[in-house]
User: Fold Electron transfer flavoprotein subunit alpha/FixB family protein from Paraburkholderia ginsengisoli.
Amino acid sequence: MNTLKRIDPRRPFTLTAQGLKRITLGATGAVAAAELNAPFAAHREQPKPRRTTAVPQRALLVAAHADRGALDDHARQALAAAALIADANTEVVLLVFGEFSGDAAALGADRLIVLPMFDRRTFAPLDELDALAACVAAYAPAHLFMPDNATGDGDLGRRYAAAANASIATHVVEIDAAHVAAYIHANTALAARALPDVVLLAPNAVEPKLPFVGAGERVAWHVEGDAAASKGVVRDLGVEEIDAAQLALEEADFIVSAGNGVADVPAFERLAATLGAAIGASRVAVDDGKFTRDKQIGATGKTVEASVYIAFGISGAVQHLQGIKDCRHVIAVNLDASAPIAKRANLTVIADARETIAALNEAAAAARSARGTGAALLNSTAVAEGALA
Assistant:
């Protein structure tokens, strides 16, 4: 099984705890040995030291939206960038929009400010801009770091730079304490400059694993005014729910995927509708005509980043594993406990895919009868997890 992650071969460097490192296509020597021994090393891992205990003289600010109480990989990379660049006299302040229950110290933050009244389901750009500006005024950070994404952070960073007349660098793919760089000319060249006031980082420019921890001090913060409603200029029309089957696989957060082990396709599709999940498939299932080509996941199909990915009857060829490498939680249902996908999965259910799908559909139907259709749909994911357990 190929365990190497697919990377952008044009990206020249990534920022790590050891400094800028050129990306290579493989691991050798001590690095490979360390990866092989990682499961055993966890039992003797020593506590990480504090990055600094000095009285801070300046600050670096990191701002990002939380996703279900946690920071996603992109946001953690932005936080790691600030922590790696900070010197002993600099504190790293993390400002989180939305509920946050993670360990800020482990992520490298020295101070944590949480604004639970903001989340990604509520569009309040002007109120978020005011909150960010107030935090900047309080801590006077030398630089502001944010992930350059399409889910709120990139837009907020650009709004702040425009409002504050601050210098900004977007889509940053290379960074250290002295400079940032981004692609230009259709990604054929790099443009570099000194660190600006606002740094919007592209994905995977920084290694988020840190050899130290921050202080993790939580700071109480009060937002003036009613942050739940925007100030009239921007009107929030709410979140429009759509059928998961209409959602592009690349954008889906919950995917159920079928392989050669799924014989009853209608039952599988009913389960996907019950769970509110998008439908994917392996190449074998697509080649057999069970699903259309746009449902194929893998190196020759779609690459997905779902929070939950359930694979029914998929053995896990290396091409398929490449397509799900960025999924957060993978659940495999397969009769073969030694199938390659079992090594990638966070949870493997050794069972027949058809029987498991039928059991889940029956559990959902029973829940509807007991609690009513509306309540069952809201709790269908919990029912599925209980049946799998």
